[in-house]
């Protein structure tokens, strides 16, 4: 996932000097589900959704709610009109949020890449950058933190805190509902991946 932000910087929430280097980004984004939150502190719909997203994120990552943080990271992609507006909004959000610097032209590239035309929008990505959910706003409203489990399995994350080396081959069978979640959140392979898979199948045959 760090490849998505190669050559870019992300700032830590409310920490002006806390600019993520490429190496730090690799550690911050590795083996995690990434949420790209496109929003604005001035948008009425965003003001309604932001407290829901804040609660969603805290319940998965804050030690007050969980013993250990979930494999989740969020990057705020602002549509605020001024840097002051963006800063004011972020001050009301969790400290673990990251943000694209205000005025960064990469924002427009992300909007085009993921088809974001209106806010609020939450794009859910696997660690390899493939899309799990194009816009998870309604899913987060409806299911709350429960939907993270679906994304985690669809992203095929390795839970390194619990798995032993001999368990890595079996990690994807952790849940009886796993096949259904994989079907719902199926990630389409690229043409190159499909071609490679057919070639490998032919070699095995």
TrEMBL record:
Superkingdom assignment: Eukaryota
GO CC terms of this entry: mitochondrion
One GO BP annotation of this record: photoreceptor cell maintenance
Domain (Thioredoxin): residue spans on this chain: 1-163
PANTHER family in the cross-refs: NUCLEOREDOXIN-LIKE PROTEIN 1
Name this protein carries in UniProt: NXNL1 protein
Provenance organism: Smutsornis africanus (Double-banded courser)
